Amino acid sequence: MAEPKLPLHDGRPQPRPDWVPPGCAQDSGFATWVMQGVRPSGASVVTPPARKRAKLTTADYVRGVRACDTSVLGRAITLVESNAPAHRRQAQELLAELLPHTGRARRIGLTGIPGAGKSTFIEAFGLHLVNQGHRVAVLAIDPSSAVTGGSILGDKVRMERLSRDPRAFIRPSPSGGSLGGVTRKTREAILVCEAAGYDVVIVETVGVGQNEVAVRAMVDAFVVLMIAGAGDEMQGIKKGVIEMADLMVINKADGENLPRCQAALAEMRRVLHYLREATEGWKTTVQLASALKGDGVADVWTGLGEFFKTGAATGAITRRRREQAVAWMHALIEESLRTSFYGCEAVRVKRGAIEHAVADGVLAPLAGALALLEAQAG
User: Confidence band (pLDDT; 50, 70, 90) for 74?
Assistant: First the structure.
């Protein structure tokens, strides 16, 4: 029997595709057909050019941010994250205009090991806050690949309910290899969100251990999310993360895991007696929570409220922000010097050869560094 042919729109027979059921004829009731695109004879297909978004002036950015236009807000954060010289200049102009409208939000850093349920907790926590009348901005930092430099940036997917709430704003950003799992522009992003009227700004980090000092240097309160049975109690001490915590939350305290969480709670309270306070006048507290069920989430906000009340009374938060501003200035100086150094033409010319010599063991690393510094000095 001859192989049946499937007709196309112009009547020309064509061999059936592999996925057509055996023995299927034109009148067999199989309803899937392949139709070729129609192109008029002698005509070419013209694809319209992609429309470019209108370039915003600094005044446009200021108006959009102050009006909490989330589209403009996202573009403003992209602007301050950009390394392009023209963007950096405009970003500084924008920050100068927004600065008088910043500083009124509660800045909270949150970290925890992978699997601690950070995104689930932040979503439950954020929903609780917006239902209490707050406006919440979440700056979620995703780790960048050490191989490709890319990031998944999936936090808006993991926080689906919160991302749909008009009183919340979620901005995922790649860490770019920055220490502490925070992008080096997170400080500027915090200011932009504050100028937009968000009164609680949460910085979620990737949780990488000792380098969490980076996020500690840009927030008021530092929350460490833990889980029972993962060795967090002692590992956290060795990493130094617990020593920076103002509030510790043992998550996933539900079901069969509840007894383990209660035991971990008692253990951590004993451990904290041997550690110095992370914030002057405040004793670090430990709480249980189940982000999945929502249990204990309101208590976490109550605990943070007590922290901010104590910090305001003692002046600890004001002093911390002053110290952070000065540290930020020095960090920007270091970044500028690094950019200037590697952008120097003389350094670029000699860098490759010197790096090869150091890698081959012909030149000591210190000698190589001095040679490049001398090249920059001229």
Answer: very high
